Amino acid sequence: MGNNVCQSCGMPLSKDAKGGGTNADGSRSTKYCSLCYEDGKFHQPDFTLEEMQEFCIEQLHKKGMPRFMGWLFTRGLPRLERWKTA
Ligand SMILES: [Zn+2]
Fold this sequence. Notes:
Distance between the termini: 22 Å
Oligomer: single chain
Largest sheet: 2 strands, antiparallel
Order of helices and strands: EEHH
Radius of gyration: 12 Å
Bound molecules: zinc ion
Structural class: mainly alpha
Strand content: under 5%
């Protein structure tokens, strides 16, 4: 448990309309959402952590979330697998 959010953008996979991204072999990704990851590739492969945070704030804002709440939400992104530095 606790691992059911997209490891790129932090969206709960349960909220993903498609139920998750897809791996290169067509299977369902249990790590990434369909907005970030499809057919084994990231949609925004060149995003830095900061760019992803901006992107998330913008997406959440479009859904009606105040920017400050979006900002709070993205504070957790550095803990996600995609952004963790080994
Ligand atoms: Zn995602």
